[in-house]
């Protein structure tokens, strides 16, 4: 389950953190409030790609971080070759960062490496 989503400098979103509760969560808002960017951030967390046009005007980079919790986390980590799955870990932070210079870094937990050597994590931080 997605337990926490933090977004910084993604399009119209300056800085936002949302804690999701178990059960049904609803996201509502007026046109232009950023609902689509929330969905885009979740898509990035799940391995989607971001273009530099998503970085908020005037900012150097954007970040999206997510925390997944629950029994399925260990199985997902195992499918990515993450050693934490051996310990039955039920929490998994992950991310992807992107900068206007074209630099990209993918991370799962505390492990960061260039995307060419990394499996797509279950969460993303675009910088």
Fold blueprint:
Blueprint: E1 2-10, E2 13-19, H1 35-45, E3 62-69, H2 72-79, E4 91-98, E5 104-108, E6 111-113
Antiparallel strand pairs: 1-2, 1-3, 3-4, 4-5, 5-6
Oligomer: single chain
Number of E-type strands:
6
Mean pLDDT: 74
- Our estimate of the beta-strand percent is 25-35%
Low-confidence stretches: 110-127
Q: How is the largest sheet built, in terms of strand order? A: 2-1-3-4-5-6
The SSE order reads: EEHEHEEE
Radius of gyration: 15 Å
Name of the level-1 CATH class = Alpha Beta
Helix content: 10-25%
CATH topology: the name is Rossmann fold
Identify the overall geometry. Answer: globular
| Number of self-contained structural domains | 1
Number of helices: 2
Largest beta-sheet details? 6 strands, antiparallel
CATH architecture: 3-Layer(aba) Sandwich
Roughly how many Å apart are the termini? 24 Å
Instruction: Assign the CATH superfamily.
Output: P-loop containing nucleotide triphosphate hydrolases
Secondary structure class reads alpha+beta
Summarize this structure as a short list of keywords or feature phrases.
127 residues; Rossmann fold; globular; disordered C terminus
Describe, in plain words, how this protein is organized in 3D.
With 127 residues, this protein is of the alpha+beta class. It has one domain (2-117): Rossmann fold (3-Layer(aba) Sandwich), CATH 3.40.50.300. The protein has two helices and six strands. It has helices spanning 35-45, 72-79; strands at residues 2-10, 13-19, 62-69, 91-98, 104-108, 111-113. A six-stranded antiparallel sheet has the order 2-1-3-4-5-6, covered by helices on one side. The protein is globular. It starts with a strand and ends in a 14-residue tail after the last strand. The model is unreliable at 110-127 (pLDDT under 50).
């Amino acid at each position: 389950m997605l337990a926490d989503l933090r977004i910084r400098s993604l399009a119209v979103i300056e800085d936002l953190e949302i804690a999701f509760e178990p059960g049904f969560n609803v996201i509502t808002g007026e046109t232009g409030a950023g609902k689509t960017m929330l969905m885009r951030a979740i898509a990035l967390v799940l391995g989607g790609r971001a273009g530099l046009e998503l970085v908020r005007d005037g900012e150097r980079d954007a970040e999206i971080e997510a925390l997944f919790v629950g029994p399925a986390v260990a199985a997902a980590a195992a499918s990515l070759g993450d050693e934490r799955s051996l310990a039955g870990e039920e929490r998994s932070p992950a991310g992807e960062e992107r900068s206007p210079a074209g630099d990209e870094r993918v991370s799962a937990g505390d492990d960061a490496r260039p995307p060419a050597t990394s499996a797509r994590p279950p969460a993303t931080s675009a910088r």
